[in-house]
Amino acid sequence: MYDPRQRLIVALDVSSAAAAQKIVAAVGDSASCYKVGMQLYTAEGPGIVRDLVASGRRVFLDLKYHDIPNTVAAAVREAAGLGVSMLTVHASGGGKMMRAATEAARKSNAALMVLAVTVLTSLDDNDLDKLGVHGRVKDQVLRLAALALADGCQGVVASAQEASELRSELDGDFAIVTPGIRLASMDPGDQARVVTPAEAIAAGASHIVVGRPITGAADPASEARAILGQISF
Questions:
Q1: How many CB atoms lie within 10 A of CB 78?
Q2: Adjacent-strand bridge partners of 229
Q3: Number of structural domains, the chain?
Q4: Domain with 8 in it: what CATH number?
Q5: Residue 65 belongs to what domain range?
Q6: Catalytic sites, residue numbers
Q7: Which residues pair with 52 in a beta bridge?
Q8: Distance between CA 52 and CA 60 in Å, rounded?
Q9: Is 0.85 surpassed by the pTM of this model?
């Protein structure tokens, strides 16, 4: 269904446009979609998004909107104006907020994909319990994902550890974007729920977000190609 290059999203988790553009140049044709998150957007603002879009790259704007419906809808309209291909909202913002976001996206750019963040990949069952959410992470992911899809989101952000259950329990052809990707030999760092690229796709992920394994490599293009090889099935 997917070209491997369409499945790979490279995370530009850096503090300057210069650093981001250096990564994009180093990766070259091995990737076409880049994540701009809170760090880079806070440092550089919308200009970096415009530059990436103007250069022919697809942008996944990962700002995880979570506010009252009117505010989120207004932010989505601004993001659509920047030309981004994908953006995130927090599913825990509720149905009204997600409906406002997806309606704003539909009216601004029908191709814009609104993704709902379920449970951050840095959290585990114990973390949720401390937040007053009792039960397994998987149960909360399924609950939030079902709500998000019912309220118009085209996909969700979740760990690949939950992807297979999402595919088996929920109907429809929806996107599952998975962060927390690490190579088998890497330390998981601040991630609690990690998988390899191949494991993520085999579990049902449609896209994987990869940062440090590519951006921290001596040869980012070579590393990206190696990951493409792992997900070409």
A1: 12
A2: none
A3: 1
A4: 3.20.20.70
A5: 4-230
A6: 64
A7: none
A8: 11
A9: yes
